[in-house]
């Protein structure tokens, strides 16, 4: 197993404080990996979406937490982004043969994590505690934690009815037309203890919205009242990395959802969606034509090659994001 890369020392002169990355899905995991290669564990915290979590085959499955964990540990499947590299499928093959559900593909290495997490949760551990133990098992030094330990589930209101997340995303491959999104349990969701500690520590330097799906990965996190309130209070700079490059989503259904919501599938559509919550934009150099408009709206804008096709590219983008942060006005006192 590859140990998580030793993060290179943080660049000198960087404002102190903790960067909080909000991550979900493959784009979020890649951005988190890049940030973890640049920032020391004490300078970065990664809060992960739990809206995709579900109970399947009697197991508690947390796809976004696992995708971040595997990516930081360097053991993720580089083609799909989710699940493990060097995976084998004996469990799933036999499950299929005995009539079990195989639409959600669980590989043999991956299965160990679902079984161990389920055991820990059944024994009364919180999701944050179980996540910390699993990440330690994969040699991850950085703080990776769920946005909440409470139950929060994304459901999609579509032309064929309201669907649970994995039914929409995996089983139906995002084919149904999305009309609205619900984050059930969000109104009662407390920030996880690691997140609450950070928010209360006075050490929060900035928030980075990773290039995750705004509706499926980031909105469920914003729906956690304490986090949404922090974003609305605008006490710390918020930088977003656009998940739309050159008029399309880098991966996943964000472009299709934007069309279904009547948004233009480009940087301006994404910026319109986030509105005043974002102070700084990291957009791809292919979308340079949108920079002027964002600047006119008072946003700080940086351009870079934002396609994170390998760990080195993720690290390079992370450095650009942190350089953008350094250009932002500091946290309001
Ligand atoms: N995505 C798929 O499209 N098909 C799958 O069979 C699948 C299995 C799977 C197993 C574990 C895991 O952590 C993720 C898995 N994913 C699969 C991806 C997952 O649905 C998405 O990564 C998130 O839920 C949304 O980003």
Task: Give a brief rundown of this model.
Helix content is 39%, strand content 19%.
Architecture overview:
The protein is 39% helix and 19% strand. The chain is α/β, with parallel strands linked by helices and 333 residues long. It has a single domain, classed as CofD-like domains (Rossmann fold), CATH 3.40.50.10680. The strands form 4 sheets. The protein has a 7-stranded parallel β-sheet, with helices on both faces. It is globular and about 60 Å long. The N and C termini lie far apart (44 Å). The N terminus is likely disordered. The structure holds ligand FO1. The site of ligand FO1 has 15 residues, from helix 2 and helix 6.
Which range does the strand content fall in?
A: 15-25%
CATH topology annotation: Rossmann fold
The domain tally reads 1
> Quick check: average pLDDT?
94
Structure class? alpha/beta
Strand order of the largest sheet: 5-2-1-9-10-13-14
Order of helices and strands: EHEEEHHHHEEEHEHEHHEEEHHEHEH
**Number of E strands:** 14
Task: Provide the fold topology.
Layout: E1 18-23, H1 25-38, E2 44-48, E3 54-56, E4 59-61, H2 63-73, H3 90-97, H4 108-122, H5 127-137, E5 143-146, E6 153-158, E7 161-164, H6 165-171, E8 178-184, H7 193-199, E9 204-209, H8 214-222, H9 225-233, E10 238-241, E11 244-245, E12 248-249, H10 254-261, H11 267-274, E13 280-284, H12 291-296, E14 300-304, H13 311-327
Parallel strand pairs: 1-2, 1-9, 2-5, 9-10, 10-13, 13-14
Antiparallel strand pairs: 3-4, 6-7, 6-8, 11-12
Bound molecules: ligand FO1.
